[in-house]
# Entry
Amino acid sequence: MLRLDRWLVTLGVGSRSEVQRLVKRGAVRVNDAVVRDPASQVDERAAALMVNGQPLDGRLTRHVMLHKPAGLLTAARDRKQPTVMDLLPEVYRAIGCMPVGRLDKDTTGLLLLTTDGELNHRLLSPGRHVDKTYLAQVDGPLEARHVEAFAAGLSLSDFTAQPATLVIVGPQTGRVTIHEGKFHQIKRMFSAVGREVTKLHRETFGSLTLDPSLPEGAWRELTDAELAALYQDAQMEVPHE
Ligand code: URA
# Structure
């Protein structure tokens, strides 16, 4: 339960005083009844909300699969550059939906965003790192020695990358699965074996696979099955909505 005015502010409907005025004017309906007291307690998980005659999705918990295009920063906000949040309706930022981990600006593919801070934290925490698969194009031929070097674990300047799986899928294309997620990890691993990544695309994150029906820049919310599998990756119970 929470106060009606606080709910509306969190959803980005307006400032505290603006939403209080709206409510007092009779512009807000909860479960089909006009509510004129901004301090009314409402069950935000069960109530259907209408503002100015329009239904408003009042969920404060959301989980998004985004097909990240190149050219956007993975960040909740940035003063100068566009971010992945610019692809979502404003309400997602207002309710605190955040990217889980980072893809480089020029990397495309699967990016998960969630309002669940604990889920976000657990999916990234060392020790519980979930597998991620990337398709990488590189600037020269890939050979068995590269596969072996990835499998052995690569010593980089500041850390040793855990053994990773590299499958050669084309003369200059490899599919890599890693269990960690250090800064520029894939690019640095290829660089350590003498290949520069020219294109990088994430296909999976834990049990999530990028939906092939999502073109670059498109997104959708996770299905119940995807959500259940993801919470299992994080060794958490799915919270009751
Ligand atoms: N590794 C990288 O080098 N870049 C990414 O965006 C993700 C993994």
